Amino acid sequence: MSTLSISKEELKALYDKDFPLWAEINLELLKEKLYDMVDWENLLEEFDYMSKVDLRACVSYLTIILEHMYKLEHFKDIAGGETAGNSWAKSIRNSRRMIEALLDDYPSLKSKLPLEFEKAWKYAVVNLKNWLDNNGYDPDSFNFPKTCPYTYEEAMS
Question: Along the 157 residues of the chain, how does pLDDT read in single tens digits?
């Protein structure tokens, strides 16, 4: 499909039907400086998404840290004692290292990640409830704090 023979409507439709082709055509349009033909609405949406991918990865690692910190403090007995705690401690260390690497690669995230701390706790609680449910416990019988019982600094050190 030639970039010159496609209408703006056809290009917009490709976004949902054939994303790689949509991206290829938009790239070609940008290279050829045919800015009026570019699907700006979807392109800007993609830029917005791309700008947050690494922050979401950091939040995911932070979620694991908080979940496993809570498990270490409250659920060692349920999981079989010290042995379970070892895997959680290892997971915390690994997640901290991954966050450090991402923050090193993308320094702008250093100021953004602490703002996502309570979101990470919310996700950690979901993970904790799923874990309890999968291990035969009623997650609703556990009262998880609404706000995270740890500080960002505790989670990261």
Answer: 455 678 999 999 999 999 999 999 999 999 999 999 999 999 999 999 998 999 999 999 999 999 999 999 999 877 666 677 889 999 999 999 999 999 999 999 999 999 999 999 999 999 999 999 999 999 999 999 999 999 999 999 9
Answer yes or no: are the C-beta atoms of 24 and 53 closer than 8 Å: no
| Residue 5 CA: distances (Å) to CA of 1, 28, 33, 44, 118 | 7, 13, 15, 23, 49
Which pair of structure tokens corresponds to residue 90? 């290892």
Return the axis-axis angle of helices 40-74 and 8-17, rounded to nearest 10°: 20
